[in-house]
UniProtKB/TrEMBL annotation:
Keywords: Cell membrane, Membrane, Phosphoprotein, Phosphotransferase system, Sugar transport, Transferase, Transmembrane, Transmembrane helix, Transport. PANTHER family: FRUCTOSE-LIKE PERMEASE, PTS SYSTEM 2-O-ALPHA-MANNOSYL-D-GLYCERATE-SPECIFIC EIIABC COMPONENT. SUPFAM superfamilies: Phoshotransferase/anion transport protein (SSF55804), PTS system IIB component-like (SSF52794). This is PTS family porter fructose-specific component IIB. The lineage of its organism: Bacteria, Bacillati, Bacillota, Bacilli, Lactobacillales. Pfam families: PTS_EIIA_2 (PF00359), PTS_EIIC (PF02378), PTS_IIB (PF02302). InterPro entries: Bacterial_PTS_Sugar_Transport, PTrfase/Anion_transptr, PTS_EIIA_type-2_dom, PTS_EIIB-like_sf, PTS_EIIB_2, PTS_EIIB_2/3, PTS_EIIC, PTS_EIIC_2. It comes from the Bacteria.
Amino acid sequence: MANYDLIAATGCATGIAHTYMAEEALEQEAKRRGLTIKVETHGQTGVDDPLTQEEIDNARAVIIASDIDVDADRFAGMPLIMVPVAAGIRDPGKLFDEALAKDAPIYKANQSAKAAATGNTQGGGLGHLIYTSLMNGVSHMLPVVVAGGVLTAISFFWGIYSADPKSDQFNAFAAMLNSIGGTTMGLMVPVLCAYIGEAIAKRSGLIVGFAVGMIALNGGTGFLGGIVGGYIAGAVVILLQYLLKPLPDKEFRGLKAIFLYPVLGVFIAGVIMWVITKPMAGINTGMMSFLKGMQNSDPIILGLIVGIMCASDFGGPINKAAYLTGTALLAQGNTLFMAGVSAACIAPPIATGIAVLLNPKAYTKDDRSAGYVNFLLGSTHITEGAIPFAAKNPLLNIPSFMLGSAIASILTYMSRIKVPAPHGGFIILPLVNHPILWVVYILIGAAASGVLLALIAGHSAKKHGVSQNSVSLAGLTGDEAVAAIAPEAATAAPSDAEATNADNNLGDILTADDVVLNVQAATRDDALHQLAELAVRNGIAADAEAVYQKYLHRESEGSTGMEQGIAIPHAQDATINRSAMLVVRLQQPVEWQTFDNQPVDTLISFLIPEHDNGAHLHYLSNTAKLLTHQSFIKQLKAAHTPMQILTLFKE
């Protein structure tokens, strides 16, 4: 049995995209750090690569990046970091740092439930529990809604009244499909309620949740009642567990689980739900009536709202709020609202494909590949493919996505297009009343976003010099990073083994005099000129102008700006006497062409003699490896004296 440095679990409400994007991000981060990790994924097909008890026992720490319940109690007694799935995608490095830190929080059994009861924020906290329990309910509800909705929609092929025995359109097979689909759709509220309760209070919460969900369904409270009922069920069971704690588990565990929790839980939670059913039903009816009215009276405002919601977090909670409303209306026979929601969800990923086609030079090779794949993802109603593009420049890209989604949704509502199935994208086109028109509207919205995305990417590439081959050091090995720092030496870069065995420590070419802090520089070229003059003052080079021109020549071949405010300018010239390293901290950052489009305040410069037999490649490689570690960068940025920086590189 293999042992792993870290173990992890990922999961999202749909169990389609976020789950596996987080898995990939965590695995790549582990690879960058030279660590091993096993990730358990909770997708719609179930749990893949489940963690064994032996793997759990032998791991150093646990990372849970999930919007649904993944049974954290099995990790009791271990250092554990628990965050939403989006955090696992955005910043896996931070999660690794926190999980492996000496003061990482130790998880205790039932910690989430205790946090809910006490309001304690440790170990995920009340807010996180509310969010993950809701997403757990949504995750289990979605397949039920999709199955029931599609079967019901197919029954309409024989006519809109094909399930009515009194109609001339009646068809026995269609009536059977309609009955099966309608019954399945009826499970939406009980399943949503039950799995919210299950995330809060495990199996007892599940049982009570199902019962309360049925009360909510029969009372006409809709999905709002299902959500409220789920939290009532979970809270009641947690309260019962606390009140019955004096009864010893050894003698009463079975009685509690089989009799006391279900009977008392269903009674108490059921009474509460029964009492609030009428006001909840009134709220639900009012909301649905308002939305139906908006479809007819002001489709532009409704489409704008739906478009903004669906493109704000690409499958996250705001997106899911619009989707849940659409499915609830669909269950009531309203097929107009879901048409706009689907259009708004399909447009963003297709927009990324259009953007990379319009301006391929502004995107990296990986971005272009992702954009092409997003044509497929978008056409099947998977919005999450747009996330990597949104994350690159969120302040500009997300509004661009919102605009396109709003256009697609507005046009859909204005033309009163009907989509009777809650998912599937273009797969369900035979069920749409105006399929070609709907596709055209979606493509118009996607094109609007795509043009804006391409323009933004092109402007960014022009301003910051980000070429289609640009990469981030955070995603590279030492050899790959030295190729990024010094592409002219990439073919001769030493292997990891050679760099490790060679006696070319960075401390050998760096002295305290070569580290200068609080340097004033107005521009990049000014900073390079001062580096060249420092080299002459320290006896490293004989001609400052010659070194400066070599710096400029190297920058013209490709920027040496990295990321997080660091640049690695270097020069090789006959006037340089020996291999040396300079570290300069600027008082104010200066504009530089960097991978993350941020200005630079820290310069790590290498000065290389004309003939050094490739020794500088070892220094470059070692530096590149250091810069792939966030802990090193943090220490470098935090250092206040030249001696601290010198010691850091020597170590």
